[in-house]
């Protein structure tokens, strides 16, 4: 082998959504803060393209880079690389990262639970892992403050018409729409339609509504479209809410989407449909679940919001070493529109 680059990772998924964790082989990116380091990697794009694009990656992968923290309260700094962006936060990836940190011994595992602090681009994230017999059985993540940005706005979509949507932030920015308004029921056979329609809605929402985070200058776009079904209460009194999140440039979140659940919880709370005493169960298109709740109520700038707790499990799927041969014509990867659609 003539490789001049060896990147070692551990594959993992949380509720079906893939999140690989980089163990070694990547130099520390430039930046005084984790946010600046995240912006540097997104702008530079070399590492993102190498890992996320073919022939090494795919649209359905996310990568997580662990770094020395900038904040002394944190155990690790952490940057998430998704297909289109490096987001402020990701719930499913946080669950994957906490699981891998403990199951690989980066931090010695303690039972029955232990706390980890991750410094994400959006700020400090507390994770509590519940452990048994060397396995992380569940991780609860205290997410970023989440809030409603626009509620019940009218949005005009080409070839669809006028629909009612809301915009909310849950660690990332979402436009939320009722699936039934579009004759959708969120089942696996609809995945392609959900992506196609979701991209249209996201693009139109950015044009007609927009988003600006009041405390995070520079996060000024809507990232995802979240389709929702009406909430139900199960026999235990839990609030059940199924969703599907269309991720740019063209895939569905396989998990219930931790940041999406957080954004939806903020909206349900504002509508009076979810209280601090409720358990909210987010269900994915695969019927996998995150069990969530509201920890407390906060202000984000002048906007009322919540601090959500997201709970879920992750599973290690493999060990990988990515190589770069000096003679490889695709050293930084490539994209073809059959598997990597054009952005909205």
Explain what you see.
With 344 residues, the chain is of the alpha+beta class. It folds into 2 domains: 3-142 and 316-323, Diaminopimelate Epimerase, Chain A, domain 1, CATH 3.10.310.10; 147-307, Diaminopimelate Epimerase, Chain A, domain 1. The protein is built from 5 helices and 19 strands. The protein has helices spanning 34-44, 46-52, 91-103, 191-208, 258-270; strands spanning 3-14, 17-18, 20-24, 63-67, 76-81, 113-120, 123-132, 135-142, 146-157, 161-169, 173-178, 224-228, 232-233, 239-247, 251-252, 280-283, 289-300, 303-312, 314-325. It has an 8-stranded mixed β-barrel with strand order 9-10-11-12-14-16-17-18. A hairpin with a 5-residue loop joins strand 16 and strand 17 (289-300). It is globular.
| Helix-strand string | EEEHHEEHEEEEEEHEEEEHEEEE
How would you name the CATH homologous superfamily of the largest domain? Diaminopimelate Epimerase, Chain A, domain 1
Number of strands: 19
Q: Tell me the β content.
A: 35-45%
Task: Tell me the distance between the termini.
Answer: 40 Å
Coarse shape:
globular
Oligomer: single chain
Mean pLDDT: 97
Helicity level, as a percent range?
10-25%
Poorly predicted residue ranges: none
User: Can you tell me the CATH class of the largest domain?
Assistant: Alpha Beta
Largest sheet: 8 strands, mixed, barrel
How many helices? 5
CATH architecture level-2 label of the largest domain: Roll
Strands of the widest sheet, in order across it, are 9-10-11-12-14-16-17-18
C-alpha-based Rg, rounded = 19 Å
Quote the CATH topology of the largest domain. Answer: Diaminopimelate Epimerase, Chain A, domain 1
Integer tally of domains? 2
Q: Give me the secondary-structure category.
A: alpha+beta
